[in-house]
Amino acid sequence: MQADTPEQPDTPEITELKAANQRFYDAFGALDIEMMDDVWDQSEKAMCVHPGWPALMDWEMIRQSWDRIFQNTSLMLFNIRYINAVVVGDCGWVTCTENISSVLQGTASNFGILATNIFMRTPEGWRMIAHHASPGA
Amino acid sequence: MQADTPEQPDTPEITELKAANQRFYDAFGALDIEMMDDVWDQSEKAMCVHPGWPALMDWEMIRQSWDRIFQNTSLMLFNIRYINAVVVGDCGWVTCTENISSVLQGTASNFGILATNIFMRTPEGWRMIAHHASPGA
Description:
The structure is a homodimer. Chain A is built from 3 helices and 7 strands; from the N terminus they run E-H-H-E-E-H-E-E-E-E.
């Protein structure tokens, strides 16, 4: 088990986990559903909570939600600040603050979101299996 | 890897995971900090997001927050509905809806919270290592 602390440099495992997390935000920022396909575990175990939405289960449902978000968004810039990052065996999770500048349905805004993202190690590398996002403090 | 679906009975691993999750809500409902001590991983890796709060890291900080919540609460009844439950190796997580009836600082209310709870298998059984709760949809 390894944890992210400000005092220590990241271990290779934590670096890998954060890279997977960054791929998620790269796909989100690119508004690119095919990049998102490569980030997620595409099974019925996948779970996604967009801020203020009910929980979505199953990759097919989750994929549709990203499609819909991407279609209604013209710009999404992320500044990610890590709160923690933990790896235990083949699982890892991060909690981070998403500082977002976006243009959604023609309206520009800046806001903060708090997200916990769970990843699973697979033969293809770390895949996101759960994303729980809520309005940031 | 095992997932909770309405069509199949829970596997023994999922049953254990849900029992650990129930112990968390039993401690919360009992407003009992010593029961909460037995639920959590008491390390600096523990992370807790109460609805609308900033993320808290480190068991000592988290314990103080529960103490404060318990001191300000006279009644907290939970009705838990599972959205999913997954075990991968020594990690497991659930997402659930907490339907809550509470009396907080003298005011009664009913509300829904959406929570993702991450657990880790230890020699003492499953321990909570992350709790991310947000206002329910």
